[in-house]
Design a protein that fits this description.
Mean pLDDT of chain B: 86
Strand order of the largest sheet of chain B: 1-2-3-4-7-10
Mean pLDDT of chain A: 92
Structural class of chain A: alpha+beta
Shape of chain A: globular
Distance between the termini of chain A: 39 Å
Strand content of chain A: 15-25%
Helix content of chain B: 40-55%
Oligomer: heterodimer
Radius of gyration of chain B: 19 Å
Shape of chain B: globular
Chain lengths: 161, 227
Amino acid sequence: MANILELILKIKTDELKYSSSIPDGIKNEDIDTLKEKFKSKFKVDIDDQLVNFLRTCDGLSKNGYIVYSSYDHIKDEVEYGLFKNNELWQKYTGEVQYIYFAEGSQDLFAFDSKSLKYELHDRYSFDVHETFQDFDEMIQYILNGMLGIYDDDDDDDENDN
Amino acid sequence: MITQKISKFASREIAEKLEQLGLKIMERDGTGLFYVEYKSKTVMVADDKFLDNFLEDITKKEDQELKAYLDELSALSEKEVVITIKSTGEIVELKDFEWVRFKYVKRSKGLVKKLRKSFNKTHQPDFLKDLVNNAEKKAKLTELGFTESMFKRMAAGEAPKGWQVNHRFPLDDSGGNDPGNFILIKYLSDHKALTAYQNSMCKSLNEGQSKILDWAVYDDYVYLIKK
């Protein structure tokens, strides 16, 4: 979790350059309600790692990525809420297998309730391109992406069809 | 759309036939994709193999049959882009999008992964910086309501808040990481409807498999979904 906090701090610092800030964490008194709502909507318990993230930062948007927040709200016409976004994804895809936590320009970040894995899906094909061992690993990937930090492994020969 | 007219074809017969039919073939900015224009509308987008098949077809098909096919493509391009949500029957209209006929050829997962990384690290930031550095494009974005704060982010290679950079033709298919294939789009719920539609069209394909489908595209570098 330390690494996540460091990344959030970096994002907070970066946002200051744009006279912007990051959202506050969810209030302690709202956590039980969130847990109940999550269980009721998705039929699984909320992951403690997600709750920890939301305690620090209740939703986050940067560089084409958006991590959904615990409460449904619209800002600049964009819906940021976890429940509303999932309602929309389920309505449009007709599937209830996935719980969506975040999205990016190319990516959808979801929990597969069948395989019990956190996954990065390609936005167009829905192919799985990364599997994460837990929510924390997934959120670290997203926070790095917000900062434009990506792995340097197997770089970047685009020509080997 | 910046395009280059393709004037050289291996066969004179094909070139004459194209002229006779009023067809133009354009290559888009080194994207590797060809745009077929008929009656001044883009009716088909093709990679080189699909284009070869199409050109072979036009020399073989009877005029009547060919005309019917081109009219079908023309009618498609003029059809409104509406997506029907299966679960509710609700209709989502994507204004100013157009349908084009398109052959989706699924790439290897390894290559897609490399292209995706390269997009994140290099091509997306470069595209965003270019939008700010190009006076004409910046003026258009200003008209759409982009602020100095948004431009500051873009100048640093970062997408403005609430916006994403998408591919018109996906990396999973023959689409590439060239700016001509990018679109800056606000992530509204209608955008999700488009994503879900695209998923439904291509997610069953395996590597190397292809499917001819009708694909919704918006022919510009920025799109604010209009109501």
